[in-house]
Amino acid sequence: MSAPTTDPVARARDAVARESWAEAYALLHAHDAHPTRAVAARDLSALAEAAWWAGHVEESVAARLRAHAAHVAAGDHRGAGLEAWWLHHTYAGLDRPAAAAGWLRRARHHLDDLPPCPEQCFLAWTDAERAAAHGDAVTALTASHLMTALAACSGSPDLIALARQTAASVLLAQGRRAEGLALLDEVVRAATGGALSGRFTGLLLSLALTRCLRAADLPRAVAWTDAATAWAAAPWTGRPTGAPLAAPSCENPFRGVFRARRAEVLDLLGAWTRAESEARQACHEIPADQPEAAAAAYRTAGDLQRRQGRLAEAALSYARVHDLDRLPQPGLALLRLAQGRPDAAVAGLDLALTHQDDPRRDLLGRSRLLAARTEAGLAAGDVRGAARAAAALHTLAGDAPLPRALAGTAYGAVCLASTASGTTAEAVTVLRRARDAWLALGIPYEAARTRTLLAAAHRAAGDTDAARRELTSARATFHHLGALPDAHRAATLLRSPRTRPPGGAPSG
C-alpha cells in the first residue's frame, strides 16, 4: 500500500470522491485562503459543493462564480455551462429570480450549440419543469424525452434518476397520477438503495416527497418521509474508495427539508406533539436556499397552533410564511374564521384560488383551498358560493382517496345547510361515507370534524341517539389531539337540544 499523500489538494480530492464533505471543506477552504496558492477550476467546483454541505450558501455561490470564470478562461464550455446552471438553481432557491434567469441564459449560451452532452440534461430538466408548470404538455414531454436520451447516453445513475423524476413530474402535471407516482417509486428506490451521490439522493427524495404530498398520496408520503429522514440522520463521515455511496456527513442540509415534510405527514396522522416539534426544528435547520420547505414548516406549525386555540402563535407562524413570499392559505383563512371574520376568510381564499392557476400540479393544496372555501362560505351565509366550491372539489378529487374524503365532507356540509327537501337524508349518507373514508385513511382530526356534521344531520333527521354517539366519539378524539376549541364545541353540542355546529365543512 502506498503511503497517504500530504498534498492538501490531493487529500481534498480524495475526500470529495468519498463524499466526506466536512473534511473536503476544511482542506479546500484552508487551501483557498492561502495567499500564494492557485486553485484549479475543478477544485473551486468542489469547494462550492463542500461549502454547500457545510451550510455556507454564500461561500458556495462565491466559489461557483470563480469556478465559472476559471472554466471560461480555459475555454471549457461544458464546465462553464454546468457551473452557470448550478448558479441559476441556487439563485432560484434564494428567491433571486433576476440573477437566476441571467445565469440560465448564460448556461444556454455555453451549452446550446455543443454536441449532445450530459450537462444539457439540466437545461432539459428546466425546460420540462417550466413547460409543465405553464400547462404546455407538448413542450414538457419533448424536453423530458430529450433529457431521458441524454441521461441514458451519459450512463450516470444520478442523471438517469433525475430524468425519471422529470418524466414523473410531467405525467403528474397531465393528471396521469398513477403513472407518475409509479415512476417516482423507481426514483425513490434508486435514491434509498445507495445508487446515487449524496446531492442527488437528497434532491430526488425532496422532489419525490413534494410530488407525492401534492398528489395527496398519504401512504407513499409516510413511507418516503421515513426513508428520507433516516437517510438524512445517518452518521457518515466518508466512504472507502470504491464502496457504495451512502449518507453524507452528519450535518446534512436536507435534514430540515425532510423534517418539514415529516411534520406535514405527522399532522395528518394526528401525532401533533411530534409534528410541531419537527416543524420547529425544521425551521432552524432548513438552508437559506430552501424557502419552500421553510414555508411548509411554518404553515404546519400555524395549522397546529390554530386548531389548539393558540391563535396569536398561529398568526405569527402564518406571518413567517408570508415573509417567505409564500401564501399562508388555507390556514390563514381558517384563522380568520376562528376570529369571527368569515368575510375576510372568503376574500383570502378566493384570492388564493385565483393565484393557483394549475390545480393538477398541487391536487392536495387545491383540494384544501376548496374545502376551506366551502366552510368559509357557509360561515358567511353564502350557501351558493359554498356549493360551487364543493362541486369544484368533487370534480377535482377524481379517484384520489384524501381529496375524495374532503369532497364528501364539503358536500355533506352543503346538504346540511340547504333548505331543499331530502337534503338531510342525503347529508347523513354522504357524511357517513366521508367519516368512514377519513377513518380508513387514519386521519383522526378530519374524521372527528366530520362526525360533528354527521351528528347534526342525524339530529335533523330525528335520530338523537346516533347524534350523541357521533359527538361523544368526536369529543374524545378532539381531547386526545389537544384540539380544545373543537372539544369545547362538541361538549356544548352534547348539552344542547340542537346539534348543528357553527360554520361549515371541516377543512383542517
Proportion of beta-strand residues: under 5%
Overall mean pLDDT stands at 91
Q: Which radius of gyration do the C-alpha atoms yield?
A: 26 Å
- Structural shape: elongated
Low-confidence stretches: 237-250
SSE pattern: HHHHHHHHHHHHHHHHHHHHHHHHH
Ends distance: 63 Å
What does this structure look like?
With about 500 residues, this protein is mostly helical. Helices cover about 75% and strands about 0% of the residues. It is built from 25 helices and no strands. α1 runs antiparallel to α2 and α5 packs antiparallel against α6 (about 95-110). The longest helix has 19 residues, at about 425-440.
Layout: helices, strands, pairs:
Layout: H1 8-17, H2 21-33, H3 41-53, H4 57-73, H5 77-93, H6 97-111, H7 120-133, H8 137-154, H9 157-173, H10 177-192, H11 198-214, H12 218-233, H13 254-269, H14 272-285, H15 291-307, H16 311-323, H17 331-338, H18 342-355, H19 363-379, H20 383-397, H21 401-417, H22 423-441, H23 444-460, H24 464-481, H25 484-495
Helix pairs in contact: 1-2, 2-3, 3-4, 4-5, 5-6, 7-8, 7-9, 8-9, 9-10, 9-11, 10-11, 11-12, 11-13, 12-13, 13-14, 13-15, 14-15, 15-16, 15-17, 16-17, 17-18, 18-19, 19-20, 19-21, 20-21, 21-22, 21-23, 22-23, 23-24, 24-25
